Amino acid sequence: MDSFSESMQEYKKQLDKGKIQYAYRGLMQYIMDLRVYLKNKFPEYSVSGIYYGYMDMTYFSFSPDSLKNRKLKIAIVFLHETFQFEVWLAGANKMVQNRYWELVKEGTWHGYHIPSKPQEVDSIMEHVLVENPNFSDLNKLTQQIERGSLEFITDVSNFLSKHDLK
Fold first, then answer.
1. What is the DSSP letter of 113?
2. How confident is the model at residue 166 (pLDDT cuts 50, 70, 90)?
3. What is the DSSP code string of 35-48?
């Protein structure tokens, strides 16, 4: 493993090339635009500010009141290392998250990932929206993320409507 000093030298080399800054600014601008698009199109949803992260993940929450009232949120997440967009069900805090994880892990969730140790992650349930996003067609990418997020929200909401846990 590289030392911190060696890693910083490589970081400086990459910054000197100039492409990293351009790509990162473009990605952050796209996520800001996606957030504004969803906020404007779905004014009945609560939309948070953006968590920019440490080049590990960048996300914002996009949640209907039915989930927010349960202290749950939907996060639209870009994972930098795997270079994909995901949608997560998360709790307002670890206690809420663990309580709903217990409920959700008993359900049948085709295509959705349920972490085995919720105390070690920030999600109750996860779903990949877009692997290897095509940033040359941002409108199409936005539509993929919107459609997948709404399907995920519907599935989660339908499941929770059948359970009394609040």
1. B
2. low
3. HHHHHHH-TTSEE-
